[in-house]
Design a protein that fits this description.
mainly alpha
């Protein structure tokens, strides 16, 4: 199984041919409900190359990732985002006197976070400094942006958006653990196609807005805006399910321990997506009422 998340699509793929021969087990650790392979792969992606003659299950001293590793590193990354967001909210207040400065800080932080995320995405191995740097700048952007929305557009909406993000994430986690969501290749293909269409529509909306179409395609207000935002939330929830599956696969197949940082990175990207889409829907809904 491969997720469409740009980070998780590499988790378990970047190191397939890296490292000493025999670093990972050749066969899946177990099976899941219904007889499916635990990892959802046809073959073990962490196995050494086919032309390497080594005993299955041989180890070279590298520790395998555990769910605890993923939880700790995800908490660290998300904690960095939250801390940076709170500090930027408190130390960089958005008011009319400083509106231009706040706008510049938010845009600058978003660009730096984007560049750091791209650098990490193209690296073969995770770099904690890059991931935490991304989290810090992403937090600055979210803090200033959220402060601006709360001050000028919809007071009190940020608490609602945070609670909404927690609710969506908890719902996905429960549905995934209860196997109400069947994450397979068909599911991943559908999510990838839907996300492509969503992003193309978003790009078209931005282009129409930039070239004088006023409200663009209407995705930022009214009923159409709420529908578009709800679709974004559902896509974020689907990506989160794919991310959870990828983490489960990595643990089952014995991915190296440092891959936990990639898991934390991918989960953070997805949760930020969900937060922004929840914020969009709540802002439009509150303004319409």
């Amino acid at each position: 199984m491969r997720t469409s998340n740009p980070i998780f699509s590499r988790l378990g793929g970047a190191n397939r041919d890296a490292g000493p021969a025999g670093a990972y087990p050749r066969e899946p650790v177990g099976t899941s409900v219904g007889g499916e392979l635990t990892g959802g792969y046809g073959t073990n992606p962490y196995a050494p190359a086919a032309d390497v003659d080594t005993d299955a299950g041989a180890w070279t001293g590298r520790s395998a990732v555990t769910m605890d590793d993923v939880i700790v590193r995800t908490a660290t990354t998300l904690g960095t985002v939250a801390l940076a967001a709170v500090l930027s909210w408190l130390l960089l207040p958005v008011d009319e006197a400083n509106l231009g400065r706040s706008y510049g800080i938010a845009v600058g932080a978003a660009l730096v976070a984007f560049v750091l995320s791209l650098i990490q995405s193209f690296k073969r191995t995770p770099t904690p400094a890059l991931i935490l740097g991304y989290a810090a700048f992403e937090g600055v952007f979210l803090g200033v942006f959220s402060s601006a929305v709360s001050t000028y557009i919809s007071p009190g909406v940020i608490v609602q958006a945070v609670l909404g993000t927690f609710a969506v994430s908890a719902g996905v986690l429960i549905a995934y653990r209860m196997r109400w969501i069947r994450v397979n290749q068909r599911f991943a293909g559908f999510v990838a196609a839907a996300a492509t269409g969503f992003l193309l529509l978003l790009l078209a909306d931005l282009l129409f807005s930039a070239f004088g179409a006023g409200n663009g395609l209407g995705f930022n207000s009214g009923g159409l805006g709420i529908i578009f935002g709800v679709v974004g939330i559902l896509l974020g929830a689907a990506f989160l399910a794919l991310d959870l599956k990828q983490v489960e696969d990595a643990v089952a197949y014995g991915a190296p321990r440092e891959e936990a940082w990639l898991a934390a990175f991918g989960l953070t990207l997805t949760l930020v997506w969900i937060y922004l889409e929840v914020l969009r829907v709540l802002t439009i809904f509150n303004n319409d009422n």
